[in-house]
Amino acid sequence: xxxxxxxxxxxxxxxxxxxxxxxxxxxxxxxxxxxxxxxxxxxxxxxxxxxxxxxxxxxxxxxxxxxxxxxxxxxxxxxxxxxxxxxxxxxxxxxxxxxxxxxxxxxxxxxxxxxxxxx
Length: 119
Description:
- It comes from Candidatus Brocadia sinica JPN1.
- This is Oxidoreductase short chain dehydrogenasereductase family.
- This protein has helices at about 50-55, 60, 65-80, 100-115; strands at about 15, 20-25, 85-90, 95.
- The two termini are about 30 Å apart.
- It has a domain at about 35-115.
- With about 120 residues, the protein is mainly alpha-helical.
- The strands form 2 sheets. A two-stranded antiparallel ribbon has the order 1-2.
């Protein structure tokens, strides 16, 4: 499998105001209090947000694909913060990342994008 480097998911987001003018991101964000998310950390959508926004849940309807994406987030965090190409599964066991992990994750991301766009 070859990941298409020109795919829009690899492009930087363009932030626009209500008139469609491109605006810059805020240069600095301070968090004075912890903002708990899923598993007590920021970065992963809290449960119920998608269901509120879309009146349906990708996690509930596609649990295996949701798990693939969750594993990619965990892998990303392990790489970014520890420099290790692995992740811990739900039981706390460290799992290596290989071609199949990336391929499954990519396919699941594409399914999620399609799921969002069909709303």
